[in-house]
Write a structure and sequence with these properties.
about 400 residues, mainly alpha
Amino acid sequence: MSETKVRLTEKILTVLLLLITVGALTIHPAQEISTSTLGGDKLDTIFNIVSYLILFYFLLIYWKGFLYVITKSPLQFILLTIVVFSLLWSQDLSSSLTYMRGLIRLYFLAIYLAMRYSLREQMRLIAWALGTAAILSMFFSAFIPGYIHQSPELGGMWSGIYGHKNELGYMMAWSAGVFLHLAISGHRYRWLMWAVCGISICLIILSRSTTSLTILLTMILLLPFYKSFQKTNYKLQVIMITSALMILIVSSVLLINNADTVVGTSGKDLTFNGRSDLWELVMSKIWERPWLGYGFSGFWTSNAASNLRATYDWASNAHNGFLELLLELGFLGFLTFVAGFVRFFVMALTRIIYVAKKPEDYWPMQMLIIIVIVNFSEARLLTPSWNWLMYVTTSLSLTLSSQQMPFRKSLS
């Protein structure tokens, strides 16, 4: 994929959009201290309006490009269409509408990023946003009262600018991963890449997020595997892929199984095994509406979930992204996502085998690893969040890269 020359003003607007999306501009104290952002809830509204206006501006300028990208990678669009139509059978229409708007906004941002920037350019833009979030989290937790948890069950755990230690750990796993790959790829500001990577790792440790540490260690351990993978024959590649995936799944389950993680502010210690009782009830609900589910973000605040919530008062989601997707969109939505996920995996693997020259070229595959591990114990698969943005934009970018995107020069 050729590098695209993008005007400075457009790059500034892009970085602003990413800063808003990564949460670097809406700073949250520890949630037991305050649920409002620094500067008040109106600040959230202002930044949401700004992001919509910028995206609308991009859509007006590059509407042909948006249509082109959608047609070249239809699986994400089909999944989003299922989300929209799920309003017809949603058990909580208000909640579905609220979260659906955020999902659509990030989908259009993903299209724009894939259309205007190569994967390597995207990594550098993402680094600006995540690096800012890491530095602000370190500053606020280290020097300003109220950004470290004080409740008995979370006491001393850092929450940074995100309000909860799990959210901080999750975002810093992305940050550490991006800066690690940029640093070892010989970026000209390598010392800065290593410094921010170190800050991100420190924040993961200070947040005591075991899942995030698992993600980081897994990415590091897989780096030499990718390198050796390029030098093997086809049969050995298949064996190595299968073995790596099995090791990844088993090790992730074992590590998370022995990690105490705190859900919400209920004060209830919950291990991976403790979730299994919840998952049994969730599965029973899935089989009640197996094909279409309860509508996007329409289950947990509906009457259908009342008995389940009464039994598990700490549960506001399935604490598993794959089960949450089945619950919301049934097998129709789940199989559509799986088709897109498998396609992403094949394209990321192909990039490693035939294209990769530097460790930063392994990033798409590493991204899938983050998504899989996180969604063992958290419901982040199809939500208006950083996870969804990174998944969609990278999938679209890989698609366009493989097709060499012939219209890119006409957009410059």
